[in-house]
Specification:
5 strands, three-stranded mixed sheet, alpha+beta, two-stranded antiparallel sheet, CBS-domain
Length: 153
């Protein structure tokens, strides 16, 4: 399964926030949308400047020990984005997320944001793929498929 397929099953909507916003505003948005990250953009459709995640907020709070209303996104966000492409297989996404220890992966096509997947999205897609494979194998073993070609169809 490729990332485009994963994104087709969920919303393409990606929530963003300005680098000038406070971390308190980030927390409000994360809770409001029940998400774990926001991409950072200073203008709609503008360049992606980074990403701010729950983990970034915890690190900033531990380092600065300041109220969230005093911390700006620009000082807490991760600037080096790890991205994937819509045509990448979910195993590529899993590898990127594991190697770089990230839980949110922006998907970019031709330097334009296509969507974002979370580790939860990838685990669900992988689980669904395994379930489908098991179903086909059971069907083949029990005589429901006439050939390996039917199994792979």
């Amino acid at each position: 399964m490729i990332l485009r397929d994963v994104l087709e099953k969920k919303s393409h909507e990606v929530h963003t926030i300005s680098s000038h916003a406070t971390v308190d505003e980030v927390v409000t948005e994360l809770v409001r949308f029940n998400i774990g990250s926001l991409l950072v953009r200073d203008a709609p459709g503008g360049p992606i400047l980074g990403i701010i995640t729950e983990r970034d907020i915890l690190r900033a709070q531990a380092a600065h020990r300041a109220p969230l209303e005093q911390l700006l996104v620009a000082s807490c966000m991760s600037r080096e984005l790890i991205t994937a492409q819509p045509e990448d297989d979910i195993t590529v996404a899993m590898g990127l997320m594991t190697t770089h220890r990230v839980r949110h992966l922006p998907v970019v096509r031709d330097n334009e944001l296509y969507g974002i997947v979370s580790i939860g999205d990838i685990v669900k897609a992988h689980h669904d793929e395994l379930e489908l494979n098991c179903y086909h194998m059971r069907s083949y073993i029990q005589g429901g498929a006439s050939s390996v070609a039917d199994l792979l169809a």
